[in-house]
Design a protein that fits this description.
The protein is an all-beta fold. It is built from no helices and 16 strands. A 6-stranded antiparallel beta sheet has the order 2-1-11-10-7-8, with no helix packed on it.
Length: about 180
């Protein structure tokens, strides 16, 4: 089971989406940090009302839920309409986070279990696995960064695990 959370917001008139997955690589392992500072943050928001290092989102294993922690007491976020001056707040599928003037909507994505590829399609001939696919074939894309395979139906925001663009991804056949 993969625990993930999807964030959506509008920046410079463009709707942005980012999926966060428990255990994904980050600049501060175990968390995903948001703010303006590219050197410190995993998710960068280019709005002057957002602090350089504003918040971090993490998965609480004990409670099996995502939470947010304020990293900037002088510019606290609003979480579900309440100021988060210190401590943590639980994130739910309908939560809203305000970092300065940026509103981030939280959507809990369901757990995704991806089948192992049966055949990898490259620019040349296919490389078969030890067992051929049975039943109708479904295709997905293998992320060029984390090598995980995503069904096409879930690709609107890039790789659901690491957020990498799938423009250069390898097409693969998924087992039924």
């Amino acid at each position: 089971m993969i625990n993930q959370l999807t964030l959506t917001w509008t920046e410079a008139g463009v709707r942005q989406t980012q999926t966060i997955q428990h255990g994904q690589p980050s600049k501060n392992p175990g968390t995903v940090r948001l703010g303006r500072d590219r050197a410190k943050c995993d998710l960068v928001l280019d709005d002057r009302s957002v602090s350089g290092l504003h918040i971090e989102i993490f998965f609480d294993r004990e409670l099996q839920e995502y939470a947010v922690r304020n990293l900037r007491p002088s510019n606290p976020p609003l979480v579900d309409g309440k100021i988060l001056a210190s401590g943590e707040a639980t994130l739910r599928s309908d939560s809203r986070i305000h970092l300065g003037q940026v509103q981030i909507d939280v959507v809990s994505a369901p757990a995704v279990q991806v089948a192992a590829p049966q055949t990898v399609l490259l620019c040349g001939p296919a490389i078969p696995s030890s067992s051929p696919p049975t039943g109708p074939s479904k295709y997905g894309l293998q992320c060029p960064k984390c090598d995980r395979v995503s069904p096409y139906a879930q690709l609107s925001a890039g790789c659901p695990w690491c957020g990498t663009s799938l423009a250069a991804a390898m097409s693969v056949v998924l087992s039924p």
